[in-house]
Amino acid sequence: xxxxxxxxxxxxxxxxxxxxxxxxxxxxxxxxxxxxxxxxxxxxxxxxxxxxxxxxxxxxxxxxxxxxxxxxxxxxxxxxxxxxxxxxxxxxxxxxxxxxxxxxxxxxxxxxxxxxxxxxxxxxxxxxxxxxxxxxxxxxxxxxxxxxxxxxxxxxxxxxxxxxxxxxxxxxxxxxxxxxxxxxxxxxxxxxxxxxxxxxxxxxxxxxxxxxxxxxxxxxxxxxxxxxxxxxxxxxxxxxxxxxxxxxxxxxxxxxxxxxxxxxxxxxxxxxxxxxxxxxxxxxxxxxxxxxxxxxxxxxxxxxxxxxxxxxxxxxxxxxxxxxxxxxxxxxxxxxxxxxxx
Length: 342
Prior knowledge:
Layout: H1 2-22, E1 31-34, E2 43-46, H2 51-56, H3 74-77, H4 89-103, H5 124-142, H6 144-147, H7 154-158, E3 175-176, E4 183-184, H8 205-210, H9 231-248, H10 270-289, H11 312-316
Antiparallel strand pairs: 1-2, 3-4
């Protein structure tokens, strides 16, 4: 009897304490928007508790002085202007001020230049910045199927930081803890941030966003045939999809029809936009970023000696349209005057 009494007392005491300490807690409901036919679970779910933080980090800087295109060319006034030489002197100087605020507001011009001789080469950051300007212009000119008329600027990724907050390096396969012998995980069974804290393979980027492996889950044929997706490939694809979802702040049904995930004809238009985005990221990493690896000092490289690369989160940072869809590029047309090829 005493045991039952004390057990009951402990139970009710615990419940009483829980009610006291949780009094006043209020969990706001999740907000759901139906985007497809009823009964097919095509809804976008948002958490109102985090919207304020997301909106705060997706604000654009105020537009300042708008330079005139007339006057002498920058290449006529300054030495060693390789990719911005067609801008007027006024446009060039204004763009340099803006880039400083977008990329290195604390470091200033000295982040890329020897301030005693601005034309001097030698700082790796200047070489990288020049190539990033070419990359920015190429994205706006060659990948309008993804960026549309909104376009991108240096601020889209950097947001006042020399290194964007969302980049990735090739990761090592950790050793599973437990037991007397460590077991290689082969990239699985580790709750990792890039794949939404699931235990899916934690590095889907090396093969899919730097490499060109096919992204596939559902096979094209009913029975297994050569070239079909393996279980590991399938799980790695799901890991990449988790990254997409978290980076854009959307559900799977933003791009897929829940009754036929594989069917393009039944998918929302956003799926095609996302497909072009994958190709764009592969192109950016392969053509502009990875070739810069020898330029960077060792302290800027990852554990395997690779350079920081981009993924969807680099631009999107939690929203389906970077910077909440603000058309920032129209206020800085000078960025599209960059010479894409040397």
